[in-house]
Amino acid sequence: MEPPLLQNRLARRLFLDRHLLLRQGSGPGSGGDLESVLERLGFVQVDSVNTLARAHDLILWSRRGQYRPKALEQLVAKRRSAFEHWTHDAAIIPLKFYPMWRLKFERDETRMRSRWSEDRRAGWETEIRQVLRHITDNGPTSSLDVGEGGKKGSSGWWDWHPSKTALEFLWRSGQLAICHRKGFRKFYDLAERVIPSEYRDIRQERHEIVDWAMSEALQRLGFGTSGELAAFFELVTRSDAKEWCMRALEAGQIVEADIEMADGSRRCSFVTEAALNEAASLPEPSSRIRLLSPFDPALRDRARAERLFGFHYRIEIFVPEAKRHYGYYVFPVMQGDRLIGRLDAKRAGTAISVRAFWPESGVRMGKARTAALLSELERVKYLAELEEVVFADDWLIPTRFDD
User: Minimal CA–CA distance to 354: which of 342, 344, 367?
Assistant: First the structure.
């Protein structure tokens, strides 16, 4: 029997609903409401680039228009309902997930010690003990408070000063936790002084963590291959992911379905029967135009976004200026269930400076759609704490083809 087919239109809706982008979100974007958003997303990526707003802030603001950056700081530093660690990159994660991260702590420690041994760097154990002793005795510590404050040098592991390397090792292995930030600078303390004992003391078996990570990834993606599910939290190996999918398939927990891509091709993926039924009953998407972070969880997997939405996107921060197609840090723009273009905008004094908007092929920028884009820029102005939006001459690039 052929697997069921999930049409592209419905697949997009299911995927976007799981990422809180299908409907017009409401809520204060703080306290318990923000904790709920973070848990439903699974995590938000943390990034230092502040061209307009930091990635984690723009991600959360896209779901809750009243969100402001201090609300996320409160979850980590005051409410202790979220913690910072790694998924595919640095991220803020619901604290209730902390017990599952012990698998990553162990794997990261093994990997870093192996690299350390291969590099044959002398004195690293001593440096780690000294940094750990400093934090034990003095409390919250940044890289500026130990050694040479993380200045780069030719003799450092990963080309860092030993003290900064020691901080990273102790954090990645779970012995330290980030207790707060000042600006964007991280302050570390002993995990036992940051993570509440009801989460710190839980011990899960490896198979329980694998089952949790795969089930929760599928819940947040709606559908996916074993590799896509493994990559969501990056807690499990690809081989573990394949084995889990085969067991779950045999047990009837999941089914295989063909997901129609934007180009009409089909991609065999795993999904639950409940999700297939849900997809058919989801509402029409909100018509709001949304400015998305380049690191938005809906777009993090660039290949998947291109298959599902027909939207080719690459960030060009590390591309030499002369070779960039668009710009240094260009924002994807979504309307409904379509990615309709990309925007080059940045801070300029007290203003958002809009240099260009490139509509996608086939997107007509009529009066209504242009007005909706301008309204979104007016909204993001408050998140960025800026006073006005200014436009370059000829900022609206002519569409390549009309609808």
Answer: 344
